[in-house]
Amino acid sequence: MRLINRRPDRTSWMLLAALPFLLVLIAYALGSAVRLAENPSDKLLPGLTSFVDAIDRMAFTPDKRTGDILLWLDTATSLARLVAGIAIAAAGGLLVGLAAGLLPYVRATLAPFVTVASMVPPLAVLPILFIVVGLGEASKITLIVVGVLPCLIRDLMLKIDDLPRQQLIKAQTLGANSWTLAIRVVLPQILPRLIDSIRLNLGPAWLFLISAEAIASEAGLGYRIFLVRRYLAMDVILPYVAWITLLCFLMDLGLRVLQRRAFPWFEDARASA
Amino acid sequence: MRLINRRPDRTSWMLLAALPFLLVLIAYALGSAVRLAENPSDKLLPGLTSFVDAIDRMAFTPDKRTGDILLWLDTATSLARLVAGIAIAAAGGLLVGLAAGLLPYVRATLAPFVTVASMVPPLAVLPILFIVVGLGEASKITLIVVGVLPCLIRDLMLKIDDLPRQQLIKAQTLGANSWTLAIRVVLPQILPRLIDSIRLNLGPAWLFLISAEAIASEAGLGYRIFLVRRYLAMDVILPYVAWITLLCFLMDLGLRVLQRRAFPWFEDARASA
Amino acid sequence: PKKEFKLAWSIYVGWMPWQYAADQGIVKKWADKYGIKIEVVQFNDYVESINQYTAGAFDAVTVTNMDALSIPAAGGVDTTAVIVGDFSNGNDAVILKGKDKLSDIKGQKVNLVEFSVSHYLLTRALESVKMTEKDDVTVVSTSDADMVAAWSTPDVTAVVTWNPLVAEILATPGAKKVFDSSQIPGEIIDLTVANTDVLKDNPAFGKALAGIWYETMALMSADTPAGIAARTAMGKASGTDLAGYEAQLKATRMFYKPADALAFVRGPEPKATMQKVAGFLFDHGLLGNGAPSAEAIGIEFPGGVIYGNKASVKFRFTDAYMAAAADGKL
Amino acid sequence: MTQISVRNVWKEYGEQVVLEQINLEIAPRSFVALVGPSGCGKTTFLRMLLSQETPTKGEILIDGIPISPEPGPDRGVVFQRYSVFPHLTVLGNVLLGAELKGGGVLGRLFGTARRQAKEEAVKLLDAVGLSHALEKYPAQLSGGMQQRLALAQALIAKPKVLLLDEPFGALDPGIRGDVHKLMRQLWHEHPMSVVMVTHDLSEAFHLATRVIAFDRRRNLPEERLRYGASITNDIEVWPRRVAGNPDFGKEPTLPRRDDPAQADGHPDRDDPADAA
Amino acid sequence: MTQISVRNVWKEYGEQVVLEQINLEIAPRSFVALVGPSGCGKTTFLRMLLSQETPTKGEILIDGIPISPEPGPDRGVVFQRYSVFPHLTVLGNVLLGAELKGGGVLGRLFGTARRQAKEEAVKLLDAVGLSHALEKYPAQLSGGMQQRLALAQALIAKPKVLLLDEPFGALDPGIRGDVHKLMRQLWHEHPMSVVMVTHDLSEAFHLATRVIAFDRRRNLPEERLRYGASITNDIEVWPRRVAGNPDFGKEPTLPRRDDPAQADGHPDRDDPADAA
Ligand SMILES: Nc1ncnc2c1ncn2[C@@H]1O[C@H](COP(=O)(O)OP(=O)(O)OP(=O)(O)O)[C@@H](O)[C@H]1O
Ligand SMILES: Nc1ncnc2c1ncn2[C@@H]1O[C@H](COP(=O)(O)OP(=O)(O)OP(=O)(O)O)[C@@H](O)[C@H]1O
Ligand SMILES: [Mg+2]
Ligand SMILES: [Mg+2]
């Protein structure tokens, strides 16, 4: 049979799926063993016990100085920033995207600007950001917003363009004005697509958050990674990276579930389009 | 007439499009004037003459030490890295994406791993990366590849899924085997979509490049920005940011033109799908 | 045996000579003399350069005494200070906004690069006015690259940092230096260190480093056009100009001559300093997991004096290479 | 009572003349079928009636008044596709018309007003045979059901003119027969004029009171750009059909060759909901 | 000469029995039309003939040999949509069959081989009336032209069996008439059997030598899952049509009600290329 027609059965599937993860683990274990044999206190690729130690220290033992459990503190801090940033960007993106997608005057005004803005590397203009919003929580949230918002607006504009023109006409023949058309016809159809856009922008949002936390912060996952990088504590960094990956994965999953639950019509409509 | 039906004419359109850029310029000019009035040597929002000076220094005066013109040197260096990184990621993404998209065995093996890998924040594992690939050009290129590749693979896999199943069946009834089906039917249809994916990933690619250059480099746009950032030399940073934005814009434009030229059938086919 | 060696350096006033030496062929000249190859690699990010050295990607690195102890030494990489280049004599400073007494720092948020020499300087400064980090201030970790920008924001009122950032910050209205490293002279030492095992197997590498260094020192300290050219180039490479660079040099006690360095390293200061530094690092949990005390890591000084755990000496000051340079035996 | 007057209308797209010199009086309560070869401008003409396009020359009046420059609730429309809103249930789609009209800023009705609108919507949905699928979403409906829904949705706004652009072109022939019957019945019951574009002559004669054919009079390749289509045929259907008088407009006597295979015993054969 | 034998075939999806106990012998050179209500399993049956699905029970043989477990060049197919490759020109689409067969690892032909294949492709395209559009891409063709292209593409691979799943369902009635004529002609000229699924009884009788109807014998809601469809009618078309004997299979004598409005004077009325 042709390769394209050959399908693994359930068991093979699971074995195959586990394979690359196993390979990475084995490669790590080997590398770590070699390095630890040379230098027992090697920090770059620590052994299992170091990880267990570090995880225990970060996730289950209160910090001596502050009494906080660092991993939870960092997670809560980072998530609060991330969620705030994404929520603001989503709300703003929705508002501006809707206006620019529907109203030619707004689009003429904003479309070129947003296109250019989405290409500015936000990390490079951080100093100005600091001056405008200060160095506190606001700056981290703002960096996420500044980085993600233009992309969301662009996305939503394109997605409104993708709605069949006939729908807008039809709504007008049913008596819609610009406003009711926006809230009754376009908004509800754009919301599930906004979730898609947010999912796409989760990665960049994390990147911006980590970068912002690396620059000035007192807690947060990115802060901790950059802090312990100062003494090459890979035994802390790697679990943190894994944890961030897991959080990212869960957020993505959550958004997918939200999309399915909140917009039951969407999946079918997309499939039949 | 309803707002959604009101369209600006050509002149208004251009005026409106220019408006937000003007507003930003004016806001900048005001802010700059206020700060300069307070402190004539303020560096955060320099005045026009400082920009002219800085641009002249960076873009038109050869460096005394090396004879290079810094802006061009930085641009050439950064672009070479970016293009290399994107090219490698694109080639790898195409290869792996094609294999995983077409062959169920490869997909079973790679799909979950790629999904997880695309969520690892690459900046956080930089030290390991540097050890593995060293510090030369390779490290910057690798960071771009590591950051962009999983997204490209995921994208392409999804895009291969979106090809109508009927096409694959049809090709088999015309005598295709897995390989000829891949190169004659799927590859040519995926290439223009790869360009779309690359365009989406240009922003992240720049981010990774700038981050990598900030850590270890001797030239490059990101290097220069981080070098002068210590001195808050916004008169150099802002033109550099504008320049990066322009480059990004041109690359995006170039890719769009390439797509239209190299795949003349694509636009129509997408519109009629 | 090994023939090719790699040195990582990062941009700082006292380490700029490495770049210049590489550009001017001084590195190659000395490497050729010893029949080896030395690659000089610049880092923008200081911490990353140390990490790379610690991970084994480099044989030598430019580093401060404190970071040498907390990163490579605590990471089990036996490290020897081949060259004691200078100590900070005002290059690091505590700066307040609108206040001019150090004691005004009480209760403020202090922005600095956490766990860096700035952090150490803050601790020492607070000691001098009978305060402690724990009770009297809040440390906000801030990247050095953005320190100047951070200072320009209204909510940042106290920073501890180093040059050229200090100069930039002091140039803004309202910035007052209330404490600097000249008040703890000799405690923040800028070194060029190398892996002890590599040095043991390849003494030529250490000798070449010393040869390169002191030839460059002679060049840059000279009041000749060549000296000015050297300093101009170094200033430029660090993102400033001749005047800016010379201002930074002024706040640095450079050991231009090997004899000066020898006098310093053979004296009592290094040992006293390292004792304080180890204490600081231990307090902040930076001496490795489960380090039982500040003396968990042994530090050797010229003449075989050892501070701390004699069974686990990981950081060594040596006078061997500088003495050779002083004696013209390279 | 909704007289439509089209006075010397021309439509050009840049260089290309699409329609030229269209003059037409459509009597109240007409059912006009518009036929003609592909690309001759039928859709363009309908778009102008809908104010989705404006004529290059000439004017269109409804009851003597120039039509508004944008689509409005006086003219309803059903397109070949995309006429219903995928995010609303069947009931929601029909209710929408009432809500947009009477729902104020929110575009929603509450309380009694909503109950009344709902009753009306259900009655309409009953008329188009969708009362059993009130809570389904359009994607769960077959093509025929979607077009019936689009009809109900258009009718609740009580348009004076109903415009149809190949509304049944995408349906299977069998299902098309059912919808034709429904269409005729709706036209009898609602006080409106209908203008329908179709490719299918038999459909045109089956439903309309008047069949109008557009075509280019000059069709040499080199003349294609310079000459647009105009009205080439204008046929009164015989026996005359009269709105509100369904007796005259009954089934044609000949069985149609493209009637459904198993028309009986499958009253809702295009209904995937039943199969599920 | 391509005898297709379907022996006691059942198809179930999980709980649901879709087809049960299908027994069928299809003689060489037949043209079988498969009709039946929506969802009765016509497509499923065709998919099994194509090896896109495997029967749950039973077996399918071609000339006495069980069919290969995957699609292959012995069986060609035209779907309702997506049968042609958007990235290849009209000529490229037809050449593809030859290139995939004889083009080795690259799947491309060069030199003489290519020239020969091209000649053959052009001849086929001529037969389906597309010789004037060789360099166009499918997206530039009308629906009717795309389906004609799909036919030419399938035929160049010289399949023993040609499978068609509602190939003309998406076409306008007028254009459909043209393609019917073509289809009949192709069947006469190429030594193959044809199995065509359609919704349209008139189409079935118009083209086929044999019309087979699928339906569920038990259709109560509670029995729907447990009972699949099977063959309910198997009609030999009269007058008999014989492959290669086009005289017998000529146009039906009655004019068809759904024939095109302006059939004459518009030989290629569904051809957007002409309008451009
Ligand atoms: N927005 C537009 N810009 C330019 N040309 C257009 C536009 N809309 C339609 N045309 C042209 O006008 C002509 C008539 O198009 P129209 O869609 O009205 O034809 P139609 O009779 O509805 O055809 P069909 O039966 O295929 O639906 C065509 O040649 C088309 O190319
Ligand atoms: N992959 C599948 N998984 C589960 N059920 C399926 C699958 N494919 C088809 N079915 C079911 O099998 C039945 C027959 O489907 P099929 O597509 O063969 O019908 P059909 O006769 O071709 O209908 P239509 O005339 O609408 O094309 C349907 O009830 C359908 O829901
Ligand atoms: Mg039309
Ligand atoms: Mg089917």
Automatic annotation (TrEMBL), chains A, B:
Transport keyword on record: yes
Gene Ontology cellular-component terms listed: plasma membrane
Domain ABC transmembrane type-1: 75-259
InterPro entries with a match to the protein in the record: MetI-like, MetI-like_sf
Any GO BP annotation: transmembrane transport
Coiled-coil portions: none
Gene Ontology molecular function, alphabetical: kinase activity
The entry's keywords: Cell membrane, Kinase, Membrane, Transferase, Transmembrane, Transmembrane helix, Transport
SUPFAM superfamilies cross-referenced by the UniProt entry: MetI-like (SSF161098)
Subcellular location: Cell membrane
Membrane topology reported for the UniProt record: Multi-pass membrane protein
Transmembrane regions listed in the UniProt entry: 79-103, 110-135, 205-225, 237-255
Record has Cell membrane as a keyword: yes
Family: Belongs to the binding-protein-dependent transport system permease family.
PANTHER family reported for this sequence: ALKANE SULFONATE ABC TRANSPORTER-RELATED, MEMBRANE SUBUNIT, TAURINE TRANSPORT SYSTEM PERMEASE PROTEIN TAUC
Protein name (database record): Lipid kinase
Biological source species: Niveispirillum lacus
TrEMBL record, chains D, E:
Bias (Basic and acidic residues): 248-276
Domain ABC transporter: 4-241
Alphabetical keyword list: Acyltransferase, ATP-binding, Nucleotide-binding, Transferase, Transport
Region feature Disordered, mapped onto this chain: 241-276
PROSITE patterns in the record: ABC_TRANSPORTER_1 (PS00211), ABC_TRANSPORTER_2 (PS50893)
SMART domains in UniProt: AAA (SM00382)
Pfam families per the UniProt record, alphabetical: ABC_tran (PF00005)
SUPFAM superfamilies per the UniProt record, alphabetical: P-loop containing nucleoside triphosphate hydrolases
InterPro entries linked: AAA+_ATPase, ABC_SmlMolc_Importer, ABC_transporter-like_ATP-bd, ABC_transporter-like_CS, P-loop_NTPase
Molecular-function annotations in GO: acyltransferase activity; ATP binding; ATP hydrolysis activity
Entries under PANTHER family matching the protein: BICARBONATE TRANSPORT ATP-BINDING PROTEIN CMPC (PTHR42781:SF8), SPERMIDINE/PUTRESCINE IMPORT ATP-BINDING PROTEIN POTA (PTHR42781)
Protein name listed in UniProt: Lauroyl acyltransferase
Annotated source species: Niveispirillum lacus
Taxonomic placement: Bacteria, Pseudomonadati, Pseudomonadota, Alphaproteobacteria, Rhodospirillales
